[in-house]
Amino acid sequence: MSTTAHLPTAPLRARAEIDLAALRANVRALRAHAPGAALMAVVKSEAYGHGAVPCARAAVAAGATWLGTATPEEALVLRASGAVPADVRILCWLWTPGGPWREAVEAGIDVSLSGMWALREVTAAARLAGAPARVQLKADTGLGRNGCPPGRDWEELVGAALRAEREGLVRITGLWSHFACADEPGHPSVAAQLALFREMVAYAEDRGARPEVRHIANSPATLTLPEAHFDLVRPGIALYGVSPSPELGTPADFGLRPVMTLSASLALVKQVPGGHGVSYGHHYTTPGETTLGLVPLGYADGIPRHASGAGPVLIGGKWRTVAGRVAMDQFVVDLGGDEPAPGEQAVLFGPGDRGEPTAEDWAQAAGTIAYEIVTRIGTRVPRVYVNEDPHEGARPAHGDAGR
Ligand SMILES: *Cc1c(COP(=O)(O)O)cnc(C)c1O
């Protein structure tokens, strides 16, 4: 990911400012929501667009003892970066046949298995590496996505994993699952998944599994469902200060603060007559004589084209709206006669407490969820890290647990 650290005042075309103090505070708030559990910071997909290495480092400084990624490649890059101490565990869960099993075993990464093919590949890798693989068995308790189904499939996977453990090829470090509807408290699937998870865990433990961690809680379950915390919680979006769902509450309701502020410098301000078409397709026509501002960000930067005519932007203390279509690299706002200087800051979203819109506002404008808004901000937008703790790189895993 393109980063420009320590240049917070450089006149960039656009920037995504990442407030690492907010991230650390969010980690501490989440640990307070789940005081009995360890915290895995989910940093997949470049920490939801915020930058995996700096965010992993900050999360660990604030007390995360595990990191989670989707792909093994993400996990290997994190481990190789040396960003976090070697005793910080990294779990990755989205494997396909032929994946880098041996590299993962040698790097001491915990790997998730959802089926027999994966157990066969990881035990072969463990033989080649001459070291046991750390594996976590994933149960499909009702999400209907990844994970091993209950019944015969689970019995077969658990039995084979325990045999491999007795042969010294694997160590079963975790039993885990994932919710379908944790962001809808009271949804009947939540209780059903919890009950089945307990059953599937009990089956494996009765057969002799001794996992270090049992876990099922994503952000919404971490925030609202204490009975789902078990040994470890796995928040992603909440780390970045975004609410998992507006129906659940605002970030502030949960003691969270948005980490990313996306802004750009106006590239042009000009006067135009009434009746002037704006951007491709002329889906906006100026209602009268006015001024237009050009914002140099487009769908190639992750600004949703679905927010054409709808996305909000703070310029000179006023909310403006995307006029016409979002193009690949730029969009236009109607400034209603105001004439800010070129270079004036246009803030697309941020924490919201300086009057700017939030990622949730953009999600509503584009008919999507705030996860997609922050995650899709492209690599052409430099991340500018602020409030980095100077000791973060060198800090031991549990360095500021008491702060
Ligand atoms: C992405 C992900 C998470 C984190 O989910 P949030 O809703 O962002 O908290 C947790 N577990 C798994 C398996 C995931 O894929």
TrEMBL record:
The active site is at 44 (proton acceptor), 280 (proton acceptor). Substrate binds at residues 145, 328. Pfam families: Ala_racemase_C (PF00842), Ala_racemase_N (PF01168). It catalyses: L-alanine = D-alanine. The gene is alr. This is Alanine racemase. Keywords: Isomerase, Pyridoxal phosphate. Pathway: Amino-acid biosynthesis; D-alanine biosynthesis; D-alanine from L-alanine: step 1/1.
